[in-house]
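Quiz preparation item.
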């Protein structure tokens, strides 16, 4: 029996609670700004293609904050500044504006608008001090206006007022800024009604998440962190408050029924985090299906999902099907997302031309459809692509409009690919494969573990703070949700996942200190509502928020290779300090630091040289990249350079070699051959040297499979004669996506 390939897109729309229980003000503007840019346009674009059905997850904490802004009750520092007459701005506000009103991807949100770009590059090139000393009232007014205008989605640019502002470009008045704010509220007010309308027509399924986006398995027991990482260092105090799970689920359920006039069917567990312990609560609440990541399925089945050279899953029949989780409390269906396809949309396609990106994605789906035809069964396959539905679009031209329109047009014309909501697929093809509930792995979409939220010293300290506050609340049985809602709302907010995401190693932003402060303020709110003494430690940050030196990559990167070292292009890259920053012993180093990172297309390296050095003079003429593959059987050769010292790691045998002539900026690529030879190979690597050296090497050049460990050493040389190597005493670690 021949079936079409069913595809379920699930877009996850989420923001944590930014409202401080101390000041009653919003600390950050992301609900308002993402609300004007990301939540409405996504489904309006879809509505033009009625054959295509999708699922959108709206987190309750997001809905509540949207409603607060719509009602005019929500104010954040960015909005307050935007609505302040320029002549009344304080010095502190001006400093805040210069520092934070460019918080956006400048390639897509700032550069397309000449006046906004002019102000941005003044700050970048002349510094914040110069702006504070030289900007006039009109500069501040224009910046306040553009910060809000740039976040309005291009889909709405045909609105006469918005079109007039875009054409005006400069000399904005307070009245203009007030009307821009009114326009923001108009867009926000359409979000929930549009989702409800499209759900009623059947084109959309709207799902929900536990109330404030907590990691449910960790609420049940922080020891669940050791399922995936047995040696994990846990907090001093064990957090075990499973009774909070039904509270989060019930509040999400009630809010959903009130806003959408029906019961939800699907639940997106926060961060796709699952464990056996949480299933009975989900089933008892009435949810019919949940979703998680292929890593959770792999751990559960004890099966690693290998991919072929094109990146397509081997044994796809295991991944592309729903499962029934069976427990004594009943059962619930579960779908597992294709991690790679989801990441391609989330992290890679924004760096490609829309037609090329769509061709790549549809090509993957067609390859899966062919596999399905070659293995016909009575049960059709369901490919689940599930990802963050807001942050990725900042890296796409026109907020993803061109990509989504091209994708939807293409998929509308595909006869063998059918886009469905998860519920409509399950109603027609209920899950037949079963997994005993107690066999379900405890993990999330990040590496199938919880290390993003627990195990780091700072994250663990935050859990200890939360445990103490939760125990304090438990000592007040008279404080119920009915007579002391402030205490409980503060608890739910503090139990949200986002604070733990940003603490410690792994992720960082220029707002880490604010997330730290918000977490402690939510805890403060618990003690205050209970009239309990405030622990002194809540007045101090959990960690010192300063730029970290050496660190591993935090996310995929997509730098433009122009030799200029754009700070936003590289801010999520790995970083290795070589000279200068580490003290007098390293002052003589010709290289100051190395950045490195990946996406699904390329491996990237950036080298910052000591100021003033010139290739062929102080700096050697050549930089060599040598790739080493640990524990992998392949043909390898010694580095093709003269006078290489017999010292690790330069005396290793390598498999790929890229020579860069720093004077001519030409490249020469080769691969190890038998008898310690090297053979030239074609390459599409990009190199640019300006204020720094930037390099992009396509994975296709290296021809290594996904999940392959790779190590890299950089060797400086003159006319093929060894000079020195970087980084010191180590190799650059790379993991192929």
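Solution:
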């Amino acid at each position: 029996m021949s079936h079409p390939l069913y595809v379920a897109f699930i877009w996850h729309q989420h923001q944590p609670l930014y409202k401080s229980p101390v000041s009653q003000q919003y600390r950050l503007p992301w609900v308002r700004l993402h609300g004007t840019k990301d939540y409405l346009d996504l489904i309006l674009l879809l509505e033009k293609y009625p054959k295509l059905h999708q699922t959108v997850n709206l987190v309750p904490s997001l809905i509540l904050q949207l409603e607060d802004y719509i009602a005019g009750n929500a104010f954040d520092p960015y909005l307050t500044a935007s609505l302040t007459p320029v002549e009344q701005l304080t010095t502190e506000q001006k400093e805040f504006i210069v520092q934070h009103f460019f918080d956006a991807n400048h390639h897509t949100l700032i550069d397309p608008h000449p006046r906004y770009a002019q102000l941005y590059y003044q700050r970048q090139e002349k510094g914040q001090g110069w702006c504070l000393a030289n900007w006039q009232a009109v500069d501040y007014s224009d910046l306040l206006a553009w910060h809000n205008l740039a976040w309005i989605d291009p889909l709405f640019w045909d609105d006469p007022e918005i079109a007039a502002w875009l054409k005006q470009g400069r000399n904005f008045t307070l009245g203009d800024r007030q009307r821009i704010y009114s326009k923001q509220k108009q867009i926000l007010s359409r979000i929930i009604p549009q989702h409800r309308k499209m759900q009623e027509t059947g084109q959309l399924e709207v799902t929900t998440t536990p109330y404030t986006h907590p990691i449910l398995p960790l609420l049940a027991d922080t020891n669940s962190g050791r399922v995936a990482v047995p040696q994990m260092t846990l907090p001093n105090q064990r957090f075990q408050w499973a009774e909070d799970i039904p509270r989060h689920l019930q509040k999400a359920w009630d809010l959903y029924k009130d806003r959408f006039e029906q019961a939800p069917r699907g639940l997106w567990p926060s961060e796709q985090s699952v464990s056996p312990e949480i299933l009975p609560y989900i089933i008892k609440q009435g949810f019919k299906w949940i979703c998680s990541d292929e890593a959770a399925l792999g751990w559960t089945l004890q099966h690693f999902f290998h991919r072929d050279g094109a990146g397509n899953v081997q044994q796809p029949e295991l991944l592309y099907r729903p499962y029934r989780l069976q427990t004594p409390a009943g059962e619930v269906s579960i779908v597992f997302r294709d991690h790679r396809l989801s990441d391609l949309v989330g992290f890679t396609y924004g760096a490609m031309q829309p037609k090329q990106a769509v061709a790549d994605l549809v090509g993957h789906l067609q390859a899966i459809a062919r596999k399905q035809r070659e293995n016909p069964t009575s049960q059709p396959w369901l490919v689940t692509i599930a990802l963050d539905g807001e942050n990725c679009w900042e890296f796409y031209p026109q907020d993803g409009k061109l990509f989504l329109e091209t994708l939807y047009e293409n998929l509308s014309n595909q006869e063998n690919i059918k886009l469905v909501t998860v519920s409509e697929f399950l109603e027609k093809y209920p899950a037949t494969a079963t997994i005993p509930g107690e066999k379900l792995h405890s993990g999330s979409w990040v590496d199938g573990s919880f290390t993003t939220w627990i195990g780091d010293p700072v994250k663990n300290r935050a859990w200890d703070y939360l445990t103490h506050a939760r125990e304090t609340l438990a000592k007040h049985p008279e404080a119920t949700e009915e007579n002391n809602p402030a205490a409980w709302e503060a608890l739910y907010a503090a139990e949200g996942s986002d604070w733990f995401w940003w603490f410690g190693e792994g992720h960082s932003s220029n707002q880490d200190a604010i997330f730290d402060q918000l977490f402690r303020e939510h805890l403060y709110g618990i003690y205050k509502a209970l009239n309990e003494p405030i622990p002194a430690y809540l007045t101090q940050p959990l960690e010192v928020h300063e730029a970290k030196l050496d660190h591993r990559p935090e996310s995929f990167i997509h730098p433009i290779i122009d030799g200029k070292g754009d700070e936003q292009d590289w801010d999520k890259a790995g970083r290795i300090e070589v000279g200068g920053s580490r003290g007098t012993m390293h002052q003589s180093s010709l290289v100051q630091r190395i950045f490195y990172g990946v996406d699904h297309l390329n491996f990237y390296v950036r080298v910052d040289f000591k100021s003033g050095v010139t290739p062929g003079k102080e700096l050697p003429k050549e930089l060599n990249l040598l790739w080493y593959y640990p524990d992998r059987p392949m043909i390898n050769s010694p580095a093709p350079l003269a006078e290489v010292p017999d010292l690790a790691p330069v005396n290793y045998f390598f498999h790929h070699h890229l020579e860069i002539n720093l004077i001519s900026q030409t490249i020469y690529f080769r691969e190890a051959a038998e008898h310690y030879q090297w053979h030239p190979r074609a390459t599409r690597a990009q190199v640019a040297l300006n204020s720094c050296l930037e390099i992009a090497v396509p994975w296709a050049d290296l021809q290594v499979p996904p999940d392959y460990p790779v190590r890299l050493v950089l060797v400086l040389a003159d006319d093929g004669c060894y000079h020195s190597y970087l980084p010191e005493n180590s190799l650059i670690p790379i993991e192929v996506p």
